[in-house]
Amino acid sequence: MSVHDDAAAIAGELAGLRRRIHREPEIGLDLPRTQEKVLAALDGLPLELTVGRALSSVTAVLRGGRPGPAVLLRGDMDALPITERTGLDYASAVTGVMHACGHDLHTAMLVGAARILSARQDTLPGKVIFMFQPGEEGYAGARHMIREGVLGAAGERPAAAYALHVASAQFGPGLFATRPGSMMAAADVLDVTVRGHGGHASEPHLSSDPIPAACEMVTALQTMVTRRFDVFDPVVITVGSFHAGTADNIIPDEAHFLATVRSFSTAARDRVRAGSLRLVADIATAHGVRASADYLDEYPVTVNDAGEAAFAGQTTADLFGSGRLLAQPHPLPGAEDFSFILEQVPGAFVMLGAGPAGTDPATAPYNHAADAVFDDSVLADGATLLAELALRRLALPAAA
């Protein structure tokens, strides 16, 4: 039987696992119920299993019957702090928590790949590391797993690493997309507090008002984006939180704002970090107030190795036909902590449209929406691609 035939044969079981995970979503690095479900699903397979010390991760290593390199496959497991309103019969049973980004599908797909490859252990030329990761949604779970040794789990650093990510919209159902180079943005945080001296709003000249200074910083950051950065290597700065004051007739002592900063290259990331901090300091000086600004490096740019992206694209086209493979024209402005893996191991990150059949990807609720819906029909295809990527990559000559 082919890999795709094997995946189709277990598709119902993968859907059952996915739905059990979906009903009991967990947030962050501590996912004990999800970890338990993954370990149960892997029970009986010829895998070397370890669990995380500081997080509820699962690392499984499959050692093939023939010598060869190692390949890493990643599936993230955590959910989001969202109250689900899909109306599905397997909707979240946990108030305020939902698998709104499809990580439940990723976990089931990776289990499927582990089952498919385990059945081929005797002829497998090398090792496969299955990385079941908590804390992708803002907790840098991949970085924690790297610190705990996931890249050395097979005894050697992987030659390549791959991950899939489903999308409830934007990509048509069943369509794959990838590209060489920058695939997703870096995501950082600019945290600014402006300190003045409060007083009566009727006599602002007797105070040092932090609000106008903070407002000027917000607008100046937007101007900086359009005047200091190449439109073909852009940055995005969005102030999502701004707080100051308690009443209309009181000048407060402080104003505070938070911004997300997205960039698509290391050079642009370095420039926007330095430029935004300098801009905040200079505007504060001009207004006679003080500002403390922290630029928090969160997730780096997700960069696909050109050769591995081409390999993943060709494998996808071979398996499913060229009509189901899209050349992603530009990076996505979302961020991914698989970027930490790709900083150290050449690999590729691939998107997969997973909206229900018949939905319009241009108008369907997108990932992170309370009514985002992902279809189980893609589970077999996702497991197939992950397994085939490992099989074909391990079979390549050592110099490839």
Which geometry do the CA atoms define? Answer: elongated
What is the H/E order?
Answer: HHHEEEHEHEEEEEHEEEHEEHEHEH
Main sheet record: 8 strands, mixed
Tally of DSSP β-strands: 16
Number of helices: 10
The fold-level CATH name of the largest domain is: Aminopeptidase
Percent helix: 25-40%
**Given this structure, which CATH class of the largest domain is correct?**
Alpha Beta
Label the CATH architecture of the largest domain. 3-Layer(aba) Sandwich
CATH superfamily of the largest domain: Zn peptidases
Number of domains: 2
Low-confidence stretches: none
Distance between the termini: 27 Å
**Spatial arrangement of strands, main beta sheet:** 1-2-4-3-5-16-6-15
Explain this structure.
The chain has helices spanning 3-9, 11-23, 32-42, 103-118, 141-147, 210-228, 266-287, 306-320, 339-342, 379-395; strands at 48-51, 58-63, 66-76, 125-133, 160-167, 176-178, 181-184, 186-195, 199-200, 235-244, 250-251, 254-263, 290-299, 302-304, 325-327, 347-353. The radius of gyration is 23 Å and the shape is elongated. It is an alpha/beta fold. The model has no long low-confidence stretch (mean pLDDT 97). The strands form four sheets. Strands 1-2-4-3-5-16-6-15 form an eight-stranded mixed sheet, with helices on both faces. It has a four-stranded antiparallel sheet with strand order 10-12-8-13, with helices on one face. It has a two-stranded antiparallel sheet with strand order 7-14. The two termini are 27 Å apart. Helix content is 33%, strand content 26%. Strand 1 (48-51) and strand 2 (58-63) form a beta hairpin.
